[in-house]
Amino acid sequence: MSTSFPAPPVRLLLCDDHAVVRAGLRALLSSEEGIDVVGEAATGEEALAMAASLRPDVVLMDLQLDGRMDGVTATRHLTSSGEAGPRVLVLTMFDTDADITRAIEAGATGYLLKAERPDELFTAIRDAAAGRTALSAPVADRLLTRLRSPSPTLSPREQDILQQLAHGLGNREIARALFISEATVKTHLGRIYGKLGVETRSGAVAVAKERRLLP
């Protein structure tokens, strides 16, 4: 007669730069059996150090963090050791294509929005610990929509400006390089953002690289 033992709890490390958010998450997660919050980090640097010492199964990672290291960079470091490292489950308010793409490319196992219901968060943590992908419904919808839609068509001028963005040039520098006015640069940037579904310069570059719109 075999005796079955309960599975060990999922060891979870919280990483969020807001103390009130961390306290709320800890209180919520402490009510759920099978999840053990082993530590809290306020920065990406702290998350890396604590993950090395505490050996969590999952790191619940915010994208926007104080300090020099954002959540995407921290995720890339945490997942660089492959199976030996923790799974990273992003928990954020941001659901732009660029944010989602950057997090997943950095190695995140899942991407959740902070509007999730508690039971969905619990399930996602367990899924992440088991190596299964966990996505909020709106995030999954965005990914499917993008996969089904053809790549946006940029005009030659928009491609020129996008290449200058990728080189880190500001509006004034782009205007000088392409012999156009700053107002024209801003107009083209607005169109580029609209076509790529982003709101920032870094987001435009990230999505353009993902869709191979840059050489």
Concise overview:
With 215 residues, this protein is of the alpha/beta class.
Structural commentary:
- The protein has 215 residues and is of the alpha/beta class.
- Helices cover 50% and strands 13% of the residues.
- It contains ten helices and six strands, in the order βαβαβαβαβαβααααα.
- It has a six-stranded parallel sheet with strand order 2-1-3-4-5-6, sandwiched between helices.
- Helix 3 links the parallel strand 3 and strand 4.
- Helix 4 packs across helix 10 (201-210) and helix 7 (156-166) crosses helix 9 (182-196).
- The protein starts with 9 loop residues before the first strand and ends in a 5-residue tail after the last helix.
Rg, please? 20 Å
Largest sheet: 6 strands, parallel
One letter per element, helices H and strands E, the order comes to: EHEHEHEHEHEHHHHH
Q: Order of strands across the biggest sheet?
A: 2-1-3-4-5-6
Percent of residues in helices comes to 40-55%
Q: Give me the oligomer status.
A: single chain
Q: What topology does this entry show?
A:
Blueprint (H helix, E strand, L loop, with lengths): L9 E6 L3 H12 L4 E7 L2 H11 L3 E4 L9 H8 L8 E6 L4 H9 L4 E4 L4 H12 L4 E2 L1 H12 L7 H11 L4 H8 L3 H15 L4 H10 L5
Parallel strand pairs: 1-2, 1-3, 3-4, 4-5, 5-6
